Amino acid sequence: MKPLSHLKPLAWSSVIVVSSLLSACGSESGGDNAVDKKESWKINYQEVTLVGNNPDVCTPVSSEVNWDALLEANCHNLSDYNLFLDPKDPTSNPQAPGLPYKLNTQLFTDYSSKYRFIFVPPTKTATYSDHEVMNFPVGSVLVKTFTVPQDTADRNGTEHVMETRLLIHRTDGWEAVPYYWSSETNAQYLSYGASIPATTTHKGKTLTFNYGVPTKNECTNCHTISPIRQSPDDDRVSIFKPIGPKARFLNWDYDYGSGEVKNQLAKWEEAGILTGAPADKSIIDTAANFDNNVDISTLNADELNLAARSYLDINCAHCHRSNLTLEEPNYSGPAGDSGLRLEFNRDISADERSFGICKKAVASGADGYPLDVIPGRSDKSFLPYRMNLVGGNMMPELGRDSIHTEGVALVKAWIDNMEPNDCGLTF
Amino acid sequence: MKITNQLKLAAAVAAGITLVGCGSSSSSDDKTPKTDEPFERIMSMAANKTQAVVDLTTIKNSTCFNVGECSASGYTFPQDAIFVTATDGDDITNLLLATINDAGADAVIVLPKGTFSVTKPIAISASQTGLTLVGHGIDQTKLDFIDSVADDGIKVSGANNVVLRDFSVYEAAKNGIKVDQANGVHFNYVATIWENPLTPEAEEPGLNGIYGLYPVGSQNVLVENSYSKGSSDAGIYVGQTSNIVVRHNVAEHNVAGIEIENSSNADVYDNIAFDNTGGLLIFDLDGLDKAFGSNIRLFNNHSYSNNLANAGSGFVGYVPQGTGALVLASDGVEIFNNQFDDNDGQAIALTSYFLIDDDVENYGTKYGETILDGWTPIINNIYIHDNAYKNNASDPDTNQETSLLAQVSLGYILGQNFTGAAVDHPAVVYDGIGELLTNANALAAMGINPGIYDNTMCIENSINQNDNGADLNIGSVYGTNPMEVIPETTTPINFDENSLPTPTLRIGQIDSESNTLMKCDSSPTRLTPSVVTINGEKYGCGSGCDDEGTATCNL
Question: What pLDDT score does A28 carry?
Fold first, then answer.
């Protein structure tokens, strides 16, 4: 009998294990023990059950990118697509014409590291969009490899490669094709997801969590916009969209190696895979560079606001969005119907309630946290309350099994820095 | 401790009664559920002796008992169905997720018979449009999500014509079954169950789920023969949806039993709601994509003993304990031929949004955008008739921290009301504030003009079954005539010297000659039946529908 086994308090207590508890290993300090430490850190592999035959198109006929397979088949092995020069290393050296890219503020996924690559078929180009994802041509592939670092302080150091997710723009729309690294050398197609016990060290503390590999359908939970039904005959279905490659997240300098540091949008134009971007990149409304090393207390009011809005956009607004700059009329993200909408390009001064300010949550609640955002009172605001949960009613609802302490602190600081407004409540 | 708005509108009453209330209402804590005792899992609906629940679990089709051929409710598995094969007690997470994720459109997936552990949420996308997910029976196939730590049990997003039937979902981490932005959803013999007694989120986070059956932002939703227990919000909920039939369901031990929110064209009939905080709820909330609802009928339902302490938060946290039905800020609702028994607060509460937010001056700032979309804070066009009432309103919730109507209830039972004497608490409570402000032309800025309340709030043909000696009363918190004056003076009754509305707590016996509250000169126009169309079949009481012409539909 264990009726309480999925309670959040239990989950909480399992998340943060103070590193001193592990000191019995005797390996937490000193260069002498570095080798021991490396060997003691391990994340296990799980087996994948593959179904059906691998179509012929999945057998590459050259060393080039296997564009035909990308368009047609969910191949058994990631290596069938020839996306990387070294098929065992999905973190660097993309096969031509692939380019690495990076977002200035990222979605939190249990402190994992992410390696992104864009492949646009030769002779094709994406067109620029002010606020939405670039309009990538059919055949384009967005590649994202997730790794768990041994220590987040050294993301170039030891890491365990977890999964490589492909978003492929096929003739009938985008499709998520997830690959799980079931061994050090091979990533296999995995539609049904996995939960992998993992640890990492973050700011000196060991975090223990279950890394969630999403199911194929779970990819759509975040990557979809759905019709706001207009009538009983409204039979439209949802539309799958990428999230990250928007101008605001790309418009900054990336180190391409060999001394080449260049604005990513400019680089894409130079590579011939993007047209239509403003010549003057400084006019583009750009998100903040926010990561776990930013000292929030040093940010001025504008910087804090920009960082928080950037963070809320990339972590929340794929679901918490509705209409606005979506090209498809009467569509919203999966949580647009909650009334909480957090897009970077939504005008907060004209639409405070969409940001949860003095707004009661429609579909949830917790005693002591009466409204989503109470300016000046992050301690009573429901939005950071849910960010600060693990399991159950947590937000975001997918892709994490730990609390993003830095993200919660950022959003709380943003709320506390607002002009105080008790929203008519008495505390 | 809840943080609630100060009810400034009711301040005049409260000033007179708070002290009395403080000295005499310390018993409300006794109603808080105790969870010290470890709870033994039963996982059998049949263990519930309630006849309606037993009925749901009874094998329906005597000609088809063989496992693998049909479900307990008589659904015959088609030849091309995909069977998930497992042994009772197995963890079927990977098998089930692989089957669903690799399924194309219009698949029929059959769940095995028995109790199975599922440790991850089941996501269903537009790729599976037309899916039928069917088990062997509501009490024959049980999916146990107790080891799934986050998110919903089952989540369907953006697909059309999805049928979920003949299985139950236990102990989901968040919502039981959520269906978002779909056209065509059919729940049939489906249960969502949390077995632990309902406990506030802040005390035991995650002990209970949030919503049970949870279609939202959709079109053509049919929920029938289904069961929900233990939700900390609504057991059976339909929100921001048009064309809805909710029938023959049982909702037990939730904060809200059955709730229809910001939805249009809904027929809710032949349902049973008991042991909830509020049995049947109709809400219109601000700021949503679907700004407001309309044309909602509640009929032939049995709502009884909904006396559960309110363990909810968010909007349902406002629902007074002991409520048979609650209508909030809605326009166009017909409530008829229902049976309301033993709801200790009130059989029916009719409230505007002003009870939740009385800051009328700032409505333009706060709600301007949603008001432009058509939402209003008032309640109007409510026609209540031919309902039977037995022994409701005998012990209203007077705890200001848990009941929206606490001060109102205290006013009635302690004598701070229009009569000046203690009266039997009204079985039907109407706030009247929206009507008063409208008639005073105070809401014109919202596009709400005087005249719209002409014969639109009506109660008639009520059946008094009280056998406890209490009067069957109706109450109105505010008078609705702004011109009303204290007799032989020119002093207004319903506004104070600062022109703020004054609650006066009117009371009358329902349907008596002398009663003036919600009295109509002629019966309002009946609302039209709703039609749900799924896979070309029409369901409900409307023309050409499966229930057309039945006794219930002819009420």
Answer: 37
Is pLDDT of B204 > 80? no
Q: Are B60 and A11 in contact, with CB atoms under 8 Å apart?
A: no
| Strand bridging mode A141-149 / A159-170 | antiparallel
> Based on the domain organization, do A107 and A207 belong to the same domain?
yes
Based on the fold, state whether residues A171 and A33 are members of the same structural domain: yes
Contact between chains at A7 and B285 (C-beta distance less than 8 A) = no
Q: What was the pLDDT predicted at B369?
A: 83
Instruction: Provide ipTM, 2 decimals.
Output: 0.82
Taking contacts as CB-CB distances below 8 angstroms, the residues of chain B near A391 are 149-150, 173, 206
Residue A234 lies in a domain: yes
Q: pTM (2 decimals)?
A: 0.88
Q: Does the distance separating the beta carbons of B316 and A365 come in below 8 Å? A: yes
User: Nearest-CA distance from A69 to chain B in Å?
Assistant: 18
Residue type, A175: E
> d(Cα A113, Cα B12) in Å, to the nearest integer?
60
The DSSP-derived string for A295-316 is -GGG--HHHHHHHHHHHHHHHH
Is B243 part of the contact surface with chain A (CB cutoff 8 Å)?
yes
Residue pairs spanning A and B at CB distance below 8 A: 236
Answer with the residue of higher pLDDT: B23 or A309. A309
CB contact under 8 A, B158 and A224: yes
Q: Please determine, for residue A307, whether its predicted confidence score (pLDDT) is greater than 50.
A: yes
Instruction: Please state the rounded mean pLDDT for residues B27-35.
Output: 41
**φ, ψ of residue A23 in degrees (nearest 5):** -65, -15
The pLDDT of residue A355 is above 90: yes
Closest alpha carbon within chain A to B99: A192
What Rg do the C-alpha atoms of chain B give, in angstroms? Answer: 24
Residue A203 sits in the same domain as residue A335: no
**Nearest CB to A424; choose among B149, B171, B359:** B359
| Mean local confidence (pLDDT), B475-481 | 96
Q: What is the pLDDT of residue B65?
A: 62
Q: How many structural domains are present in chain A?
A: 2
**Do residue A21 and residue A140 come from a single domain?**
yes
Q: Is the Cβ pair A238, B6 closer than 8 Å?
A: no
Indicate which of A229, A240, A426 best probes the interface with B, i.e. most B CBs within 10 Å of its own CB: A229
Residues A88 and A227 in one domain: yes
Residue B12: what are its φ and ψ, rounded to 5°? -60, -40
User: From CA B14, how far away is CA B398, in angstroms rounded?
Assistant: 12
Q: Is the pLDDT of residue B146 over 70?
A: yes
User: Does A365 contact B2 at a Cβ distance shorter than 8 Å?
Assistant: no
Name the residue range of residue A390's domain: 289-416
- With respect to residue A181, please indicate whether it lies within any of the assigned structural domains: yes
Q: How confident is the model at residue B207 (pLDDT cuts 50, 70, 90)?
A: confident
Chain A closest-CA separation from residue B542 CA (Å): 15
